[in-house]
Sugar phosphate isomerase/epimerase (Amycolatopsis thermalba), 276 residues
Amino acid sequence: MSMKHLNCSANTLRHADLPTRITAAAQAGFTGIGLRVSDYLGTDLPDGRIRDLLDQHGLRVLELEHNWDWALGPDPVEEAMFRLADRIGVRHLNLPMFQAHPLTDLVEPFGALCDRAAEHGVLVGFEFLPYSHVRTLGEVWEVVAAADRRNGGITLDLWHWFRSGATPADLDGIPASVITTVQLCDVLPEPGPDLTEEARHRRLLPGRGAGDTLAVLGALRDRGVTAPMSAEVFSDELDARPARDAARFAFDAATDVLDRAAFPAPPWTINLEEGR
């Protein structure tokens, strides 16, 4: 088994407070965590203490999430988002689009957001969700390609891949370097009547469901994708477990499926790497 540099996404331990999340993720074997902006704004820990906790446990923040209508321009929460990047460090932002805009109207604002993020050394991954307004890999690539920013790419979540009906052929023409990150999780054999509800409450551990995870990882591997890997499992069942157990289950399942796919989980850096 090769060394895995795995990230524990924000929603895998979504109900744990920040110190508990950091400790549980590190003890399970993760080398990074994801945060929602609300996790950062909702803690009473000062920035220096957060950074000290991360350093103490050998963790870094891979991804930061905030769902807002970025097509309208800068959001007030951006100040906090980039403050975290400047003081604590982060690699990339994950962003979907939940408001109705023509794809062509997203190109300029996506590029502008990438430009603002670049001022802080941060990447941006646009995430397609089958229940959002950018539903497929092809649609998100249309925006990312047209914006043509060096720090702009695609967040590829396997739950969304499976439920959107994506196939490995959909990767054709997309450069490997455009895949900003891959989020590992799995799906039930049949989709539920409400995809939003299913996505937020009933995901399965990576490689433990009906999705052909090995085929997807094989396609990414064969195309030279070396993006950071995360375990993102929105699951009421996992939520009911102690944080340390939930983190261990997610890490073990992700490690197992990556090993079976012969897919390395490579190391990655954040914008403040020189200080870590």
Q: What stands out?
A: The chain is about 40% helix and 15% strand. Residues 114 and 152 are 6 Å apart (CA to CA). The chain has a mean pLDDT of 96.
